[in-house]
Amino acid sequence: MKIYTGRGDEGMTDLRTMDRVSKASPRIEAYGTVDEVNALVGVVRPTGYDDIDDQLREIQNHLHIVQADFANPEPDADDPQVTDEHVDQLEAWMDGYEDELDPLESFLLPSGSEPGTKLHHARAVCRRAERRAVSFASEEAGVNDAAIVYLNRLSDCLFTIARVVNKREGVREESPSY
After folding, report:
1. How far from 48 is each of 9, 54, 135, 159, 168, CA to CA, in Å?
2. Which among 25, 61, 19 has a CA at the least distance from the CA of 41?
3. What structural domains does the chain harbor?
4. I need a labelling partner for 162 at 20 to 30 A (CA). Which of 20, 118, 132, 152 fits?
């Protein structure tokens, strides 16, 4: 199979339904930004912590489901879709780190160890992906709400994992000085 087809040379791309849309459409912007998040999560791995690496691998798979979900305006029952269970998984991971972390008492500067700062970067791009998805959903009917909720929760999860990595690396969290 060739990687290039030439079908996108004029600024159009195919959806799952084979409908052609502009590469600048809100739908493509949404799942393209999710792809950026996925790539950034991949840059973090391996962190050196097996539990975190396993979670990040699973998150990357979830992000492929988000992309497939957004790329399909007419999903069938057997098509990949984000569900509440994906969101529940993120919440369970965050809850599992509660005892490992000090209580959050202020905003934090996105800094720390190398994997911690990379996770903060992924979190920031995840927020952008969420904004793109909300915009896309405001323009088109039938967007899976669970996928948008997933992106919202994922940014919280990436923030939490960044804090965990920084703590394990012995890097002190810094708050902004106003």
Report:
1. 41, 11, 37, 18, 10
2. 61
3. 24-168 (1.20.1200.10)
4. 132
